[in-house]
Amino acid sequence: MPIFIKNEAEIKKIRIASTIAADVLEMIEKYIKPGISTEKLDTICSNYILYKKNAISACLGYLGFPKSTCISVNDVVCHGIPNNKKLLKNGDIVNIDVAIIKNKWYSDTSKMYFVGKPTILGERLCKITQEALYLALKKIKPGICTSIIGKTIQNYVEKNNFSVVRNYCGHGIGKNFHEDPQILHYFSQKKGIILKPGMVFTVEPMINAGNHLTRIMKDKWTVKTKDRSLSAQYEHTVLVTKTGCEILTLRKEEKINSQLIN
Q1: Cα–Cα distance between 191 and 68 in angstroms, integer?
Q2: pLDDT band at residue 191, thresholds of 50, 70 and 90?
């Protein structure tokens, strides 16, 4: 698939979808408490997307995925399927991944939540994961190679004695859910691509407290850490600008500028 350079009109549409996706993650936070099921959280998100925002979940039905959000708890790396039996408990860390279609344009974002009081390890893992994402975003500008993104994340994560999942990566996004380029979150000798203004893609590092290996469950979706260690992920949809990048899915609580001049 070619790498699509978005024009101003297209970027405006992606911005709208991105704002909705960020709104969902802000809205759901107050519901994340011990005893609630991941199914209930998914239903709240689904209703908000459909009825409050007049938008569509990009996850629902994608390659057969059965729910409107991915909700991944503790050792689930990604693609956790919400269900009634999974009740959140004090100390859990939870990722909610929201992808939106609005007027045929896509956005994608996720964040971590603490259930009650987090463990020291859980809190630190989430902090390092978010900081790694921010450090990578501060490198993005025209003329750099995508490999700089992965190298920045890997260096910071491994310096803090955690590991970067290799099996999944960020991706271009726009009129399609997944487009080129692929954005690796670790350094690879394979040639990356040079960034240009108008490119839109996700950066979404998945970081494990143990080693980087993963396993897929029998449902063919849920990905867990192989060593059963905790895993965390933060994701943003970003636009390469002439001077750096714009974080399209920025939430109000985040302490980073939406416009980064790098």
Answers
A1: 35
A2: confident
pLDDT digit string (tens) for 44-89? Answer: 999 999 999 999 999 999 999 999 999 999 999 999 999 999 999 9
Edge-first strand order for the sheet with 163-164 is: 163-164, 206-208, 231-233
pLDDT band (50, 70, 90) for residue 164: very high
Helix (H, G, I), strand (E, B) or coil at 72: strand
Strand 236-240 and strand 244-247: the pairing is antiparallel
- Token duo for residue 112: 């971590």
Residues near 55 by Cβ (< 8 Å), separated by ≥ 6? 17, 20, 49, 100, 101, 102
Tokens of 4: 């699509």
Which residue's entry shows tokens 């929201």? 98
For residue range 251-261, what is the model confidence (pLDDT) as tens digits?
999 999 898 88
**Residue 103: how many other CB atoms lie within 10 Å:** 11
Annotated binding site: 79, 97, 108, 171, 178, 204, 235
First and final CA of the chain: distance in angstroms? Answer: 28
Binding residues for substrate: 79, 178
CATH class of 8-260: alpha beta
* Pair of tokens at residue 154: 């890997």
Strand partners, 238: 201, 247
Residue ranges for the known binding site for a divalent metal cation are 97, 108, 171, 204, 235
